[in-house]
Design brief:
292 residues, alpha/beta, TIM Barrel, eight-stranded parallel β-barrel, two-stranded antiparallel ribbon, 9 helices, 12 strands, Xyl_isomerase-like_sf
Length: 292
């Protein structure tokens, strides 16, 4: 494992407290005045362009808020070689924004030169860990910083999987030095679909040193028949909130946490109300102030 630099070591602000995924609909709210949000996360690919309004807004808001760059297109677990063009754009963005954190998804999205615009789950097999550790090293060395990898939602299980997702991702983190971005909504969706105890899987993540869990994500989902679908287009469900409360009660109250809404975007005031509920849960477990 090569020596790498944590983004927070160079960022203008550290990542802490309760954050929100920045979406275009809320640009005016954030530009008009400082909002009661501790940090912002953006999808990296939306800001790859060297100019334009989106980049202008991001560079303005990074003066007031710590920023986390969250990628959705790298596909680190793809069979195809990693895209050098993609990595170069990401590296340039990191250099200019100086984010407090950089993350990607533990997924694949390309094979045989065909790109799928999806976060496709990997087969959780021990014999893939060495190869994937090398891929993480390649990315971290190229970017010059540590990345975190997020658990994704899944709807099928591979017959030859010999590890749970939490076992696989935490083992990868220990081997490569990468962080873990723990998406509690994704964990709940996957464990419901696979009929596995979500709390038991969550405890496997929480067995990591807390400095390896760089962020926690919360979001909503949809019920469709017997399956749950990770849609990020609805308020937080009681089940996701309860699972987050459980995580806080078991040591995760100090981990930076944020709410994602990717579709059916409500007024910012609705999301701020959800953020306040998250703050109160965090504070009750000793993770910070209930008000911001």
């Amino acid at each position: 494992m090569s020596q790498i630099v944590t983004p927070a070591a160079q960022a203008p602000h550290p990542l802490s407290g309760v954050g929100l995924g920045l979406r275009h609909a809320h640009y005016p709210d954030f530009l008009e005045k400082k909002q009661p949000v501790d940090w912002l996360e953006v999808h990296s690919e939306n800001y790859f362009s060297e100019g334009g309004y989106d980049r202008h807004v991001l560079m303005r808001l990074r003066e007031d808020y710590p920023v986390s760059l969250h990628g959705v297109g790298l596909g680190i677990g793809s069979a195809d070689p990693l895209s050098l063009s993609h990595l170069e754009k990401l590296k340039s963005l990191i250099r200019q924004v100086q984010p407090a954190a950089v993350s990607e998804h533990l997924c694949w999205n390309a094979a045989g030169g065909v790109f799928a615009n999806e976060l496709l789950p990997l087969p959780m097999r021990r014999n893939l860990l060495g190869w994937l550790t090398d891929r993480v090293d390649q990315v971290q060395n190229f970017l010059g910083c540590r990345i975190a990898l997020e658990n994704v939602s899944s709807y099928v299980r591979f017959q030859d999987a010999d590890m749970t997702e939490a076992e696989f991702l935490t083992t990868l983190a220990r081997r490569s030095g990468c962080g873990v971005l723990l998406d509690i909504n994704n964990l709940y969706v996957s464990q419901w679909n696979h009929k596995v105890d979500a709390r038991a899987e969550l405890m496997r993540y929480l067995a990591l040193p807390l400095d390896q869990i760089t962020e926690i994500h919360l979001a909503g989902h949809q019920v469709r028949g017997e399956l749950l679908f990770d849609t990020h287009d609805a308020p937080l469900t009681d089940q996701v909130i309860d699972l987050y409360r459980f995580a806080c009660q078991h040591g995760a109250a100090s981990v930076p946490v944020m709410i994602e809404r990717d579709a059916d975007i409500p007024p910012l005031s609705d999301l701020l109300s959800e953020l306040q509920e998250v703050r109160e849960i965090r504070s009750a477990a000793g993770g910070g102030n209930a008000e911001s």
